[in-house]
Design a protein that fits this description.
Shape: elongated
Number of helices: 1
Largest sheet: 6 strands, antiparallel
CATH topology: Immunoglobulin-like
Number of strands: 11
Strand content: over 45%
Length: 152
Amino acid sequence: MKKAWSLLCAVLLAGNLTAALPTAAAESADETGDAVILSTGLITSRSLSVSNSSGQLCINGYTQASETMKSIGFTDIQIERSSNGTSGWTAVQYPDDVLASNTNTCSFNNYKVSVVKGYYYRVTCTHYAKESGFWFPKSESITATSNSIYLI
């Protein structure tokens, strides 16, 4: 009987702790201007763009958080190409994740990639931040798509 009572108390206590956690979400806009519900609001600023650098694709990106993060940066990076620049985007390269530790910012500047000329290119990625907290560290992921550029 004592085990059953202890188990019931533990379940009720866990339910009360969960109910006390905040559930409101902040709202933001992604690079396309569409509203996105953010789970935590850790990421305060972000950017992603591509340009032409002597016939190579040049990627620039920035992720900033509200405080020092255990991990921050870019995950799921994909270089995509299209023959017309509006549809038919196909992933052609998958660069490694770019992550920093114990800081509030992460960027990659002038990251050059050799690609086949004669196509439009863009980059997609996920801006990522994870807190250092021990018990319930929050994390946030925001999907982004860069501008597109034609490489001759």
